[in-house]
């Protein structure tokens, strides 16, 4: 998540070539610069794909890989985020989530670096509604190295935003296994969020220029720890800009999403990857989060590590949003709309 303590008006790839199936099948080849932990990545994914449904074991194993010191904080343009990207691509492939473009990568240049969004695609089943798209996203980059504390300089980015990344991976796996979404779905992991929402803005602009009819966009940011004393599971940024929360809760038959005053106070609607989609496409595009300014002290800190994550909470939240997303993808009409501002 971009810095929220001081308001800033500005907002928050080496392309893999060749055939994706060959890339996955020959994972022992030099797809990227290899290291000892690549074997571990394959083992993690094999275990997490076993039942092809959301599970705490899968959430935990994927989180452990993405937050490992070997990834060096997943800074855009580094070997660490390359490892994360390959991990996500393999997960999509194993789940049956297809690349939307020629490969999973949507590449762009930022500050003399190559960044890449990872874009997975599940085609809709309805002959008419499949021409409309629902986007589920999160940023998978982080800040890399941070201020040294007790000899530790790696900002592992567990809550920000390996947690959101894993949510998107689990949801992609779930919807691919169901294969019943009437609208088409894009599952996008954004890079360079921490550099000013660059990846999200790049693909939002690309989809606009390609005239892709996007209906709604939902992003996940910092969901690794639960809130206390709330009558909802997570809050929705930009709560007042659309009726998304109202309709989502109706679809889910429970109060999954609520309003957090601090989210509006600190302009969080403008500080995550949803915002470029709202700006460029003029659609309901909002972020789900459980970071409420009181329940987590390691924002952009080297102690933002796996040990502080509540995977049971994460699993429950991911499972709880599935019915709401089903409603978004399967409603006969576009029921989620922007409100008059």
SSE layout and pairing:
Blueprint (H helix, E strand, L loop, with lengths): L19 H6 L11 H12 L7 H11 L12 H17 L2 E2 L5 E6 L2 E10 L10 E7 L5 E5 L2 E3 L3 H21 L5 E7 L7 H12 L4 E7 L13 E3 L7 H9 L4 E2 L2 H5 L8 H8 L3 E5 L21 H20 L11
Parallel strand pairs: 4-7, 4-8, 8-11, 9-10
Antiparallel strand pairs: 1-3, 2-3, 3-7, 5-6, 9-11
In short:
The protein is α/β, with parallel strands linked by helices and 341 residues long. The chain has helices at residues 20-25, 37-48, 56-66, 79-95, 158-178, 198-209, 244-252, 261-265, 274-281, 311-330, and strands at residues 98-99, 105-110, 113-122, 133-139, 145-149, 152-154, 184-190, 214-220, 234-236, 257-258, 285-289.
What would you say this structure looks like, in words?
The chain has helices at 20-25, 37-48, 56-66, 79-95, 158-178, 198-209, 244-252, 261-265, 274-281, 311-330; strands at residues 98-99, 105-110, 113-122, 133-139, 145-149, 152-154, 184-190, 214-220, 234-236, 257-258, 285-289. The protein is α/β, with parallel strands linked by helices and 341 residues long. It starts with 19 loop residues before the first helix and ends in an 11-residue tail after the last helix. 52% of the residues are buried. Strands 1, 2, 3, 4, 7, 8, 9, 10 and 11 form a nine-stranded mixed beta sheet that branches. A two-stranded antiparallel ribbon has the order 5-6. The chain is globular. The chain is built from ten helices and eleven strands. α2 packs antiparallel against α3 and α2 (37-48) runs parallel beside α4. It has a single domain (24-330), classed as 3-Layer(aba) Sandwich (Aminopeptidase). The longest helix is centred in the middle third of the chain and has 21 residues, at 158-178.
């Amino acid at each position: 998540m971009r810095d929220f303590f001081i308001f800033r008006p500005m907002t928050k790839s080496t392309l893999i070539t060749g055939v994706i199936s060959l890339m996955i099948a020959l994972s022992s080849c030099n797809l990227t610069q290899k290291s000892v932990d690549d074997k571990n990545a394959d083992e993690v994914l094999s275990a997490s794909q076993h039942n092809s449904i959301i599970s705490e074991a899968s959430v935990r194993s994927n989180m452990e890989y993405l937050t490992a010191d070997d990834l060096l904080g997943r800074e855009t343009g580094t070997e660490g985020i390359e490892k994360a990207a390959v991990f996500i691509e393999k997960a999509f492939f194993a789940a049956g989530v297809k690349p939307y473009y020629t490969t999973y990568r949507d590449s762009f240049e930022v500050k003399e670096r190559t960044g890449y969004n990872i874009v997975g695609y599940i085609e809709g089943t309805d002959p008419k509604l499949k021409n409309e798209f629902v986007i589920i996203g999160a940023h998978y980059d982080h800040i890399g190295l941070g201020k040294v504390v007790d000899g530790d300089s790696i900002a592992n980015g567990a809550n920000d935003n390996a947690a959101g990344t894993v949510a998107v991976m689990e949801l992609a796996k779930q919807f691919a296994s169901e294969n019943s979404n009437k609208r088409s779905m894009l599952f996008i992991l954004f890079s360079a969020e921490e550099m000013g929402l660059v990846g999200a803005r790049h693909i939002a602009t690309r989809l606009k220029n390609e005239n892709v009819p996007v209906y709604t966009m939902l992003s996940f940011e910092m969901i690794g720890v639960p809130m206390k004393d709330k009558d909802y599971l997570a809050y929705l940024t930009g709560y007042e800009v659309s009726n998304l929360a109202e309709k989502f809760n109706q679809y889910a038959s429970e109060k999954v999403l609520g309003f957090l005053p601090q989210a509006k106070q600190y302009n969080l609607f403008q500080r995550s990857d949803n915002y470029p989609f709202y700006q460029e496409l003029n659609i309901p595009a909002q972020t789900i989060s459980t970071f409420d300014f009181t329940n987590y002290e390691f924002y952009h800190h080297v102690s933002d590590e796996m040990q502080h994550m509540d995977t049971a909470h994460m699993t429950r939240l991911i499972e709880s949003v599935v019915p709401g997303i089903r409603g978004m993808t399967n409603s006969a009409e576009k029921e989620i709309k922007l409100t008059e501002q």
